Amino acid sequence: MRFGLFSTFDNPHGDFAQAYAEQISLVRLAEGLGFDEAWVVEHHFNAESPIPSCLMVLAFLAARTSRIRLGSAATLLPFHNPALIAEEVATLDILSEGRFNFGVAKGGPFPMQNKHFGVDLADSRDKTIEALALIQRLLAEDEVSFDGAYFKTDRLRLTPKPLQRPVPTFIATSTPDMVRRAAALGYGFMAGPPFPLKIVARNVAAYRDAAPQGDPKLVLMRFFHLARTRAQARKEAAELLAPFIERMKSTTARMQPEWTEWFDVERVIDDSLIGTTEEVGDGLRAIETELAPHSVVLKPLSPLASKRSADLEIFSDVIGPLFRTAETI
After folding, report:
1. Quick one: which of 175, 184, 176 has its CA closest to 109?
2. Where are the domains of the chain?
3. Luciferase-like domain: from which residue to which, for each copy (predicted)?
């Protein structure tokens, strides 16, 4: 099982430059500690997570790191021209010397994105599917003619081409339908920090039903917070998660009401890696047994850079080595 860092570029101090500097330092620390992956989100019009251009940030991180794999989590395809994204993916794969993981999504229940990018919510899923199909052809084929409902090309030759053939691709989703599509195409899938483990388990089963010989290559993001006692860890986590939970409850009630029941603070904590080192280790063992993820990607909860760093260091020293195998070293 591999381990990674989930980078949302949190901005608790209202200082964009500080948020970027702290997160870049944390990625570099994670690499030094032996973490395998760092994944960067794409968020728009969000002062608390001001990271609208994940591919640009990943290109910068490619120059500041040498070993850790770098992933988009995720590129929101409905809001981009797929030919441009294909060019940027190929360029980033070259700059990172073949260390790029391409995660994609249609965008969450955040209507401001669709409104200001002029994308009808009803079209987001189909645009994502079509854009990804075109991107993959451009990355793999010498010349591409494409006649879709949203995008068209005529004998287009993409330059440059990526080093990796193919570039590892992951779909971020909570729905069995998109998981089955990922299975049919041989992609992995990603599950975000707040999504219930029972939903993730359902989707792993859907993937394996669709592709019995396939590998879900599950990238599981989880909230992460350590303390000396269980009670202290849960109390601190509840306080840190409360604003996020309330914001998501409000948004999902309008946009995706089926998600509303998921956003309960205690349920989110139960499905996260929150507690003492022993409890986090036990949680990882249960995840490994039940889901067999390709990687578990940690989202530190603390707004303090020092605490985020300390928790990653403890994880690297105490917890991570319990799960290292010959394949992950």
Report:
1. 175
2. 2-323
3. 1-288
